[in-house]
Here is the input.
Amino acid sequence: MQIAEINVAVLAGGLGSRLQGVLPGTPKILAPIAGKPFLEYLIEWLIRQGVRRTLLCLGYRSADVLAFLKTRSFAPLEVSTVIEAEPLGTGGAVANALSRLTSDPVLVINGDTMVDADLTAFLAAHDASGAVASILCARVEDAGRYGRLEIDSRQRLVRFAEKDPLASEPAWINAGFYLFGRAALQQIAGLTRGSLERDILERMPPGTIHAFPARGHFLDIGTPETLTLAPEILTL
Here is the structure.
């Protein structure tokens, strides 16, 4: 399967509570960066990767996102939306959107992260692995604010390590990009609300999940501190 045939679900319904002090009343995915909302950078990146179908999973201030989408065309990318009536968490958001996600596998991405990685290579590695799910992993120099990933020599995920503010050494972390095959999506379908990480991925047996390493730039705009780094990274 080619990346153009894959449905891409973008999780963009969160409250973005850590950013409310600097972005009051603005959904995180519309955070302005060097004159453009983060969503525009994300869509342009998906187009360059060859993605042709994406579904935005919206919640908080969804009307603002819908209004932005009406201001321009993103051809050749088809952008559609699904709106949750109440906060469902990342797992619940995917479950809520499953009827609109028909490819196998489905690519799910967090709407507040970007990573310098090749999605075609990610898809090919997932297919070759035979795993029910794959996680794209980013290498960071200071892992203190992230949960770390322990990966074995077969590129399989052994363990999710809890976030440790004292763990300031380089490490592999979850970049927030996932490929889910039908078996994993069936597990997600059982959620009415909840977290992809805690309620699905961390409950899979060790060695079940394929880990795909990406060594390029990683950006998470989830805090005021990391948001300030976005212009330098996104305008490279």
